[in-house]
Amino acid sequence: MPLLELKNIARRYVMGTETIHALRDVSLCIERGEYVALMGPSGSGKSTMMNLLGCLDTPTAGDFLLNGNHVREMDDNELAELRNREIGFVFQSFHLLPRSDALHNVELPLIYAGADSTQRREQALKVLAQVGLAERVHHKPNEMSGGQRQRVAIARALVNNPSILLADEPTGNLDSRTGEEIMALFEALWKQGNTIILVTHEEDVARHAKRIVRLRDGLVASDEPNLNPIIPAQA
Amino acid sequence: MRFWQEIREGLIISFASIRANKLRSALTTLGIIIGIVTVTLVGTAINGLNNAFNKSISALGSDTLYVRRGSWFIDSDAEWQKMRKRPPVTLDQVEKVSRQMTLARAVAPFAITRQSVSYKNKNSSSIVVIGTTEDFVNIAGNSVASGRFFTSLEAAGGRPVCSIGNEVATNLFKGEDPVGKRIRVGNQTLEILGVMTKQGSFLGQFSLDNQIIIPVRQYISMFRREEDFEIQIRAVSTEQVEEAKEELRGIMRRIRHVPPGVEDNFAINQQEMFIKTFNRVGGTIASAGLFITGLSLFVGGIGIMNIMFVSVAERTKEIGIRKAIGAKKRTILLQFLAEAAGICLFGGVLGLMIAFPLTLVMNQFLPATMNLTIVGIALLVSAITGVVSGFLPAWRAARMNPVDALRSE
Hints:
heterodimer; A: Rossmann fold; 6-stranded mixed sheet; 33% helix; B: alpha+beta
């Protein structure tokens, strides 16, 4: 059973009198342990796709199975639980809580999962160490560099051992050197067995993945393995 | 388990957000503080009035009946006129009641007048002089602190003796022992047999200690008043007050020759009547006071609601992030409710801290103390205000779509 299975997915938005077909007919399978880049210019349906894959949104038509769960029939609370359990988000602008320190930001998904506090702290410290931030657990986002913030965000995404790491332009707000460090981190996480989906419009970023899916006008334009992936130098 | 963690998380967040917006929170809290201060003060004042009333009223005794021509509470002019036409209550009737009552522990006549009293060169005007018998000391609230009360022989013989109230003793005899001394009351010289214990004032109006008690015969000879007494009857027990009242009524009708079917030409008064009247008036005052002060709390609540709407709008993105990583509707709702309740509770605590010294000032006039019930109610009310006024904004936050919320800047 594939980890992610999309069958004839469509997503329409009604804006006033107009109906926008963000996704027309998309079918896609992603297996556990894959490293996939989802590419496309703006207006291709990439963001909609990312919202669907992240269970932030549900499709208008078609079937979407995540780890065997039928996402389309779920209500808001079930979706919230599913996101908490299965998805680790990494956003372009980090999306950390500004008033909380790194540790608390990373602990947050565990709080929503209902873990007890000692277990929570242990696990959060472990993933923070894993992303190389063992020394900065009590720093607030505004006391850290962009790269460090993105590492906190990655730690937060990892803390619940999700099925998928879903990264939306993870290097978009970083300089190229820091961006490369983050890509190296993704590479390492993939090697440890994590499934990674990168949503990006940058060819250079996408070429780190082992498979590239290109969207255009709400349809899959191409879906092929990346035979010559960039392997970042270990930071 | 998870619920408490979410509450705890909500409280941590609310604390952080209150700290982050100090001025705004302070201004919002001010509304609640004022509300809680006024509600607490009014509550304490009402409580104080009740205490004062109960303390005063206990002087009447729950087991004591007071018979006279008319009722303590006369509602109309017509009733007043009717009362005036009734025959007076004579000493002879008092004696008959005393002899015939089986359910009475003590029966005493009671008549008062105001006189000036002097000792050596000291003078006190407008002292209450009470004419009664030896049984008076067995009626509610009266007891002798030093010396003794007059005996039945002294009462029947109309001896020139008296017992004085605590206040008379301190005013006329500074540092001297009044027992055995002679004072002038009107144009008569009386020997002091004893001093009564301190009783305080009745309903904060007049002192029960500024009085002189003399034998009833002496009273009649001194003041030559038209004989009209109140009879004070103490029942054998509080439980038997009603039976005693019925017995008393029968005796009174008989000795005052009231034919069957004609209404009583006297009235039996008791403590209960005061309590009823007070509860009626006090209840109205209390509800009006609490309603008006409640309005100020309501205004404070509106302030909270307003600021919570702002807070939700400002933190749309935060809500989006939280939802993306797994916060449910309930979680977000709880978070903002906890924040609103937190601000209000904080305001409530501050309000109580401000109200406390004010109640101490109030205590100079009323036996009003801020008790735990009032504190508890104030805190509960402030938390409820927070939850109620925070609900709409919190609900708006909880219902946000995570995609839109994340996109907002």
